[in-house]
Write a structure and sequence with these properties.
The structure is a homodimer. Chain A has three domains: 6-173, Rossmann fold (3-Layer(aba) Sandwich); 180-280, 6-phosphogluconate dehydrogenase C-terminal fold (Orthogonal Bundle); 290-355, ACT domain (Alpha-Beta Plaits), CATH 3.30.70.260. In chain A, helix 3 runs parallel beside helix 4 (100-110), helix 6 (175-198) crosses helix 10 and helix 10 (237-259) runs antiparallel to helix 11 (265-280). The first copy, chain A, has helices at residues 19-30, 42-51, 76-85, 100-110, 153-165, 175-198, 205-208, 213-219, 226-235, 237-259, 265-280, 306-316, 346-355, and strands at 12-15, 35-38, 55-56, 66-69, 92-94, 116-121, 142-146, 169-172, 294-301, 323-327, 334-341. The longest helix of chain A is centred in the middle third of the chain and has 24 residues, at 175-198. By secondary structure, chain A is α/β, with parallel strands linked by helices. In chain A, the strands form two sheets. Chain A has an eight-stranded mixed β-sheet, sandwiched between helices. In chain A, strands 9-11-10 form a three-stranded antiparallel β-sheet. At the A-B interface, helix 6, helix 7, helix 8, helix 9 and helix 10 of A face helix 6, helix 7, helix 8, helix 9 and helix 10 of B.
């Protein structure tokens, strides 16, 4: 399959050289694409150039095959319209995490804008700026492209080519489907994590001291940047509201079940069952459901080199590690390392690790 | 400090040889304590004995210094009362994860029962039964002991001795404080995780396919045993209700903020800020707040031996690993390994790994 290099033979112009823009530049340069960079902050641009993400765009440049706008959601439409009006690029896309809002704003500026198509690579890191950029950031991640009935086929072709050359797995869906999907799998989980973490703010120390790995998992993403998340949630407010009102209905039923004189076990059981079923639908590292992996737990202590020795032995056993977790023992130099492997390979791994002297409980 | 061996010189009787009972037997045997075991299922008892958790209790045995009742919460009171009535043990405790319900039921049977004190080791695994038992299960974990004004000092002394000999960190608090604490740090997070996971049950495949590590973290514990969790939540219904009604108030404010014509950014920002603050209060491996660790991220691919080589290099760099996460790339053989270390040691680790050829983005 032609991977899209020819569709981009006139090069790509990336506007905004933060984490996403710079990562994309690095990936496209590696794929041999001519990449021009632009940023309103000259130091940010200079750092991206120094890292090898592309060359600075110049006034005399011929129009790029595609402009990729990697700026905050609320600034997307203005940049896209300027880019196309000025002839800096023949077509344009953006990489913001919401799609209805920029699409509407572009339409308000340009009318039905066939030369623009929104897109969203499902990739990111907790750091921002060009210094955190990775050429592999998009590797294997979904990259959603959202055409509508007015979109030129060339815009779609070029956006898909960029996604593919960056190593992502391109997928097309409507703007509405995209925004509903990210509300469900990203924005609502963030709010739920925050709602739980907020309960801890004023809790007495003796309660916090009993916290274990469960509450830590649930609240991990609540640590994300408050300003950025406020923007994201505001820009996708309606779709997030839909998911959370369904959740509130379940929460109200749960509160009623807990408040009834004899707690309503069947209602609680139904909810717990839905939790197990919903959890089972999530994909793992290779796209399978989590339920398809098996966990091998190994006791380790804090002596230097324990993890290195463990993974050397895991490797010698020929096991392919799908995921790793360390189950903490607050204040103590001992813990359980949980290694997820494919079913059918767990028994051999247990045997091999036990033979090498590891404590491997069932 | 005398660690409590003499307080238990007449031995410990463990009733219920599931995961907790058998793990405790293994830990106490290792500490040189005489351990007798009892279980209504003869195969379960036999397995615990075979694993080395103790010897079967016999009709002619002298009273044990302490009976430890490790049966489901709703069965605790009956077993405790029978044990003390029959003179099988001088004092008794239990290890159920709720404390008000068994204490009330013991009182209903025995009156103010000075010879019983409830306790709760904050330890567990996702497997059940004696086969999953670990002598180190309690190592470094909080073990809460809940005396009241009627409790004999000897009951407390002996329960604390068991906790200490099992390697746990004993702490005393009232029954009400305990139940409020576990509602906050364990039961409410479980329900929140379930409420989010339940949203995924009927979601279309194209939405699920966009799921990443965030929703996976939030919903991890939702996979727990529905029957067991129904019992736990029913037994601590009032305290869980308190936490969740506060959460519902925040949720209602959030829904209102999302539904207002121009989303109310300041309300959303306040909530996000509380999430960050609450998350920051959770202890890490050594009891510090998470915020006190720094993450070093390293790109790895799926080639055999990558994790072993990485941790060998981490070890050679002299770094002490506080936590590890693998950030998945569904369907692709590449990922980001995130290693948490103490602040001040991260720069050296980055340098050392970079020198050894690893891709270590900022």
């Amino acid at each position: 399959m032609e991977n899209g290099r020819s569709a981009l033979s006139d090069g790509v112009l990336i506007v905004g050289t933060g984490l996403l823009g710079t990562s994309l530049g690095l990936a496209l340069r590696r794929a041999g694409i001519d990449v021009r960079l632009r940023d309103t902050k000259s130091e940010t641009l200079a750092e991206a150039v120094r890292l090898g993400a592309g060359r600075p765009s110049e006034p005399g440049d011929a129009p790029a095959a595609l402009g990729v706008v990697a700026v905050p959601p609320e600034a997307v439409a203005g940049v896209v319209a300027d880019l196309l009006d000025a002839g800096d690029a023949e077509y344009a896309t953006d990489v913001a995490s919401v799609k209805a809002m920029p699409a509407e704003q572009v339409r308000a500026r340009l009318g039905p804008a066939g030369r623009y198509v929104g897109s969203h690579p499902m990739a990111g890191r907790e750091v921002s700026g060009p210094g955190g950029a990775l050429p592999d950031l998009f590797e294997g991640r979904p990259w959603v492209v959202c055409p509508d009935e007015h979109t030129d086929q060339q815009a779609v072709t070029r956006a898909l080519a960029v996604a593919r050359l960056a190593g992502a797995a391109p997928v097309t869906m409507s703007v509405a489907d995209h925004d509903a999907a990210v509300a469900l799998v990203s924005h609502a989980p963030h709010l739920v994590s925050v709602l739980m973490a907020a309960r801890l703010v004023d809790a007495p120390d003796h309660e916090i001291r009993l916290a274990g790995p469960g509450v830590s998992d649930v609240t991990r993403i609540a640590g994300g940047d408050p300003g950025l998340w406020t923007e994201i949630l505001s820009a996708n407010a309606a779709a997030v509201h839909d998911v959370l009102s369904d959740l509130r209905d379940d929460l109200d039923r749960t509160l009623a079940a807990l408040a009834s004189p004899e707690p309503a076990r069947s209602a609680l059981y139904q909810l717990m069952r839905s939790g197990v079923d919903g959890r089972g639908r999530l994909p793992g590292k290779h796209g399978e459901a989590h339920a398809e992996f098996v966990t091998v737990a190994v006791m380790v202590d804090d002596r230097p080199g324990q993890l290195a020795r463990l993974f050397a032995d895991v490797d010698a056993a020929g096991a392919n590690v799908e995921d790793v977790r360390i189950d903490h023992s607050p204040g103590q130099p001992v813990g359980l390392v949980e290694i997820d492997v494919r079913p059918g390979t767990d028994a051999d791994l247990r045997t091999a690790l036990t033979e090498r002297g590891w404590n491997v409980p069932r």
